[in-house]
Each structure stands twice: as structure tokens, then as C-alpha cells.
Amino acid sequence: MKKLLITVLFCSFSTTFLWAQVKLPETPDARMLRFPDISAERIVFAYAGDLWTVPKDGGVATKLSSPKGAELFPKFSPDGKWISFSGNYDGNTDVYVMPSTGGTPVRLTHHSSNDLVVEWYPDGQNVLYRSLMTSPSYRFNRLYKQVITGGLPEQLPLAYGELASFNADGSRIAFQLQSLEFRTWKRYRGGWASDLWFYDLKNNTSEKFTDFAGTDALPMWHGNTVYFLSDRDSRQKLNIWAYEVSTKQTRAVTEFADYDVKWPSLGPDAIVFENGGKLHVLDLANETARPIDVRVPADLPEVRANLKNVA
What we know:
By secondary structure, the protein is mainly β. 6% of the residues lie in helices and 40% in strands. It has one helix at residues 2-21; strands spanning 34-38, 42-47, 50-55, 59-60, 62-63, 71-76, 82-87, 94-99, 106-107, 116-120, 126-131, 142-147, 154-155, 164-166, 172-176, 196-200, 205-208, 216-222, 225-230, 239-244, 250-252, 261-266, 270-275, 278-283, 288-292, 294-295. The strands form seven sheets. Strands 1-2-3-5 form a four-stranded antiparallel beta sheet, with no helix packed on it. The protein has a four-stranded antiparallel beta sheet with strand order 6-7-8-9, with no helix packed on it. The radius of gyration is 23 Å and the shape is globular. The N and C termini lie far apart (53 Å).
């Protein structure tokens, strides 16, 4: 009986020791989730150089890509079935498209310049992107239309173009001429500060609709409202503002005081953005924002035990 008890205790200790050595998968509440976009049901974002999706309310993310290069600017198609993005699978940053549930990316552009996805056309058959490929200077991009079935791009008549958003029927865009999103400048007031414009694709006419000394950027056209990023409040933090097209009135939507709002992106009924390293979802029905928890089940190879030469 004593021998049996000792055997049982030893087996129990061995099992406990084994479980102590085999850790459960790591799923940290991730930060640094960049370039998010939102569909009716899911969010796509870039994390650690790859693309991931997660339910709209947060949860455990699913990895969509794993190339050696990085991907950025993922955008859901209007029906949510496809994702366009910029990636450097073949050694150069080009525009790709893939199913939103995962699959083999199809390359759409083939120029040596960096081709950066801006938005889908409302028809779901074309992607708007920006590139230096015909610009006379490296200091600004131009906008191009690319059909997702392949072929040569169509250059828009605008001399300059960075980030843009379409109205419902695709006849007009709200856009910005220059882009400072990758600059580290804070509270910038100067000649590179961006304003926002309307452009009529049918009549080839343009109209400036913001005129602020600081930053007005990343327009997102939803119904009769153009949401955009601005640091025009007293705190001089980048927050989401709204411009009513019919009344030409501007109002504040978010009021973050500690961190800037970064990379907001419009979906069918919500805007997703980054603030303080976390993703937030802004419900457009009531214009209230809430943070969501995103857990990333990555292999995290750098946290594994390994041998180091400390000589």
C-alpha cells in the first residue's frame, strides 16, 4: 500500500512538472496594431509585419499572411469579401488582393515605385492607390485606379493626391494633397500642413473645404458627412472631426486628451482607429467610441529559452 501511494505521488509530481515545462499558447492583449480597417463583421490590421483579422467586438485574431516582407494599408472591399493591401512579396511594395478569409494574394501593380492602397471604389471592382511612378518629384504621390482583374492602371487627373475617400456613388472624392502621417512632427503649423478638398470626377472641378493652420487629414466620406483627423482643438491632439457637406459646419467627434488618434478607417457603419496602442471602434449611429481587446496567438520566438554566447 505504501509503495502504491509513493508511485501515485511520483506520477502526480511528474505530471505537474511536465505541465510546468509545456506552457499554454501565448495570446497577449496586443498593442501596436496598425493600419486597421473594418467591415460589417470583422477588423483587419497589420501586426508584426503581417495581416490579421479579428471579430468586430474583439477577441482572438486570425493570421492571414506570413511573407518575409511587410504588409500595410489593408482595406476591405465594400461587400467584405476581399482585402486589398500593399505588400512586398516580390521584393517591391505593390498592390495585392486576397479573399478576406485568407488565400493566395494576387499582385495587381508592377511598378518599381511604392504603390500604396488608399481605398476601394464603391463598385467593388477597382482599387484606388497612390504612387510616385509618374510624379516629377519624390515629395508627392499621384492617385491611380486599378481594376482587380488585372491590367494597366488609370491615372486620375489630379496633379497631387495622397489619401482619399469616395461619396456613395463614386462621382466625387474627398482628398488631401500632401501626407504627413509618417512624420514624427507634433502640433505642426507650416507649409506642409494638409488641408482637405473635394474633387468631382465627372466635371473635373475641385473645392477646398478645410482651411486650418494645422493638420486636417484622412478624410472618410459617409453619407452627408466627411469624418477626418485634425489637431484643431485646444489640446492640439489628433482627434476625429466631422464636416457636414450640406451645412458646411465642422464639429468634434472624439476628445482624446492623452494620445493622438492614428490611422482611422471607415467601414459600412463604423470607424476603427488606433489610440494609445489599442484599437477603438466608433459607432457612426451614435458617434460613441469604445476600445476593444485583441489577443494575438503568435509564436513569439524571441521569448523561447535559447542558448546565448556571453563570452
